[in-house]
Amino acid sequence: MQTKIASGEIAKDKTPGAAAVGPRNLLEVRDLSVSFSGRAGEVLVVDGVSLSVRSGQTVALVGESGCGKSVTALSIMRLIPQPPGRVVSGRILFFDSTSSDKDCVVANGDAEVATDLLQLDAEAMRRIRGNRIAIVFQEPMSSLNPVFSAGDQVAEAIELHQGLSRRRAWEAAVAMLQKVGIPDPAERACDYPHQMSGGMRQRVMIAMALACQPSLLIADEPTTALDVTTQLGILNLLRGFQRESGMSVLLITHDLAVVAESADYVYVMYAGRIVEHAPVETLFANPSHPYTQALLRCVPTIHDDASSKRRLSVIPGNVPDPGDWPTGCRFHVRCSLTRDRAGTSRRATVAIGPDVALRRCVEAYDAEPSGLPHLQQIAPNHHVACWECESTQHINRVAAAAP
Ligand SMILES: Nc1ncnc2c1ncn2[C@@H]1O[C@H](COP(=O)(O)OP(=O)(O)OP(=O)(O)O)[C@@H](O)[C@H]1O
Ligand code: SF4
Ligand SMILES: [Mg+2]
User: How far apart are CA 260 and CA 182, in angstroms?
Assistant: First the structure.
């Protein structure tokens, strides 16, 4: 299904969550909410997420375990198991001028046509999935089929999406395995996943994903299970492909070192919502949401040695389960600002007046009955969802505390 959208709407960054620099958007997720049903009833796990990926860019989605990163990725691929999952609302707009799929041809002039992936029927979505949008999962062992050889699995992807004969697909698969750095690819193509190292299996997954030259690759923790050297090799491999083909990458990770190394633009996610987004340089130079700051304080730097005075910190507590999101700001239980200023009995000590923002943090506030802070632009192309960020004082404090 096609969706007509005035191009100015995108270029002028009116979309909440739009990354407003560089080339035009390839993907726009708008106000996506996803729930799962269980014994406790239907529970939201992704709550109003908006994000954009521009052509040729690497966009990182970061956050701790359980924040909703993979559910967001699976929603884009339309791979949420339904039931128990359900996309409650939102749009996933895909702008892909290179697609041969008739649903995806992009117009020109002052209007653009996008495909709302959520509206596609199963067959049309199958044509896009693997072909124009591909995904690499964290665990190759659970994604590769143990009873088929690596070559068979890559060839099957090529056969399916490019319509080549089995023999031509096998040749293309061997060439692809060579491209992703598998030594002796003609021989190793006959190996089964259990005969390969973790790094090699991940390369096979990447070969499968990239075989059809997608315009968007979703890489969900592609290197988390790997040692640092192999991790670097995989990231370099992705970068090489990206340079060659102009592909965009949505990189899901909790590793901020990988983000600094690879991303152009970053979205920080906490408890089902985006809490900050900015270009990577801005985010690292001026992290403004207390959660982003806390994540950055957990990252060791090259200057941290035995003589270093900086202590690596941990964020107290855990991401709350979706059914247990607290009132007010979902981060308030762990937020250093509320802890430092109000101690344990926050509600009793936070007063209206200079601390009015803190009162908003912990409970519903008249002006915002849900008590949730919304993303606000605090600097050009830098958005933060934090009541405290509304005050200049806070921005100064953040600047002083930046790691
Ligand atoms: N199939 C499912 N059924 C029920 N709940 C689910 C299902 N898949 C995910 N969830 C819940 O959705 C929430 C978000 O999960 P998600 O996998 O997106 O987290 P994540 O940010 O990717 O974490 P991680 O870094 O550990 O991969 C979690 O609370 C999880 O338990
Ligand atoms: S809104 Fe309040 S509790 Fe939430 S991150 Fe900002 S200061 Fe902390
Ligand atoms: Mg995940």
Answer: 27
